[in-house]
Design goal:
The chain has 282 residues and is an alpha/beta fold. The protein has two domains: 187 residues, Vaccinia Virus protein VP39 (Rossmann fold), CATH 3.40.50.150; 65 residues, Nuclear Transport Factor 2, Chain: A, CATH 3.10.450. 25% of the residues lie in helices and 30% in strands. The strands form two sheets. It has a seven-stranded mixed beta sheet, sandwiched between helices. The two termini are 36 Å apart. The structure holds S-adenosylmethionine. The site of S-adenosylmethionine has 17 residues, from loops. S-adenosylmethionine (SAM) binds next to loops.
Length: 282
């Protein structure tokens, strides 16, 4: 979850049946409306140009694609794109607009991305803290091994997550608050984190509706979730990437390509490559 910026569209999605949240923590999240996508793409575009400029093929898998906004963005740039996500509700939002011919959305698990997608790509992206959803070392290893298999030789993996080292060091327990004016009222997106021992993170994405002029209900919780995450650090990630056969690992501190500063950077952005001399298995 990179810093979501104020958006101009509606707030949280529809109510969801009890129990659905445990299976699909993004059910009813209205995730798209919590992020200012134009601002995010403007910020990320030069870095994407820099790191995805010389791929073996103009094709890309967006793993943990959520509402599919990056997938659509790259499809509009002429890439062949597949967006993969485990959340039915995220994918339902992703498919709301007509899907162009060079884009498809698939429901499946990142840890089996190659099997779920069934073809190879010039690049794989895992953006917006999705890697932190992989809770143990075996999950992380399986995900990177799947990425290795789905990349063409010379293909690149780019992923972005929070730099939890900084949050642990500073004992910071929140991400920046975002406040949006929407047709339904002013929506406040509050993201609290409880940082536990051993890199276990409890994350509480919460949507509030703020009505300054309503004396009875000035602030209402529209949606609150408790999601378990894992605070992977650069060392864990580098080891798992190398074990999966990925090489040329580079670290950045933001999606603008700033240098990674372990105690300063808000994000940890990692770039790796599948070696060119890798044999293509059948
Ligand atoms: C915070 S969202 C990020 C969405 C988008 N990539 C972005 O940058 O805004 C994390 C996404 O990862 C998906 N996800 C988490 N674990 C997954 C897994 N094991 N396999 C596939 N998708 C997963 C969730 O369903 C969710 O859509």
């Amino acid at each position: 979850m990179s810093a979501a910026e104020p958006s101009t569209t509606g707030p949280a999605g529809p109510d969801v049946p009890p129990g659905a949240a445990a299976q699909d923590p993004f059910a009813g999240a209205g995730y798209r409306s919590l992020i200012d996508w134009d601002a995010r793409f403007r910020r990320e575009d030069p870095f994407f140009g820099q790191v995805l400029g010389s791929l073996p093929e103009k094709s890309l898998a967006d793993l943990g694609c959520g509402t599919g906004d990056h997938a659509r963005y790259f499809a509009a740039k002429g890439f062949r794109v597949a967006g993969l996500d485990s959340s039915a509700s995220m994918l339902a939002d992703a498919r709301k607009e007509p899907v162009p011919r060079n884009l498809r959305f698939v429901q499946g698990d990142l840890r089996e991305a190659d099997r779920a997608l069934g073809e190879r790509f010039g690049a794989a992206l895992i953006l917006g803290n999705t890697v932190a959803f992989l809770l143990d070392g075996a999950d992380l290893q399986r995900a990177f091994a799947a990425v290795f298999r789905l990349l063409l030789p010379g293909g690149r993996l780019l992923f972005q997550m929070l730099n939890y080292g900084r949050f642990y060091e500073r004992k910071e327990r929140q991400l920046p608050l975002t406040v949006n004016d929407t047709a339904e009222g002013t929506v406040v997106f509050l993201r609290l984190m409880d940082l536990r021992e051993g890199g276990r993170v409890l994350f509480f994405p919460t949507t509030l509706l703020w009505r300054p002029d309503d004396p009875e209900r000035p602030l209402e919780i529209i949606r609150a979730r408790r999601v378990e995450l894992r605070a992977w650090g650069p060392g864990d990630l580098q080891k798992a990437l190398e074990a999966a056969g990925l090489r040329d690992v580079e670290l950045f501190g933001s999606m603008e390509g700033k240098p990674f500063e372990p105690l300063e950077s808000q994000d940890l952005v990692v770039l790796a490559r599948k070696p060119l001399d890798t044999m293509l298995s059948p």
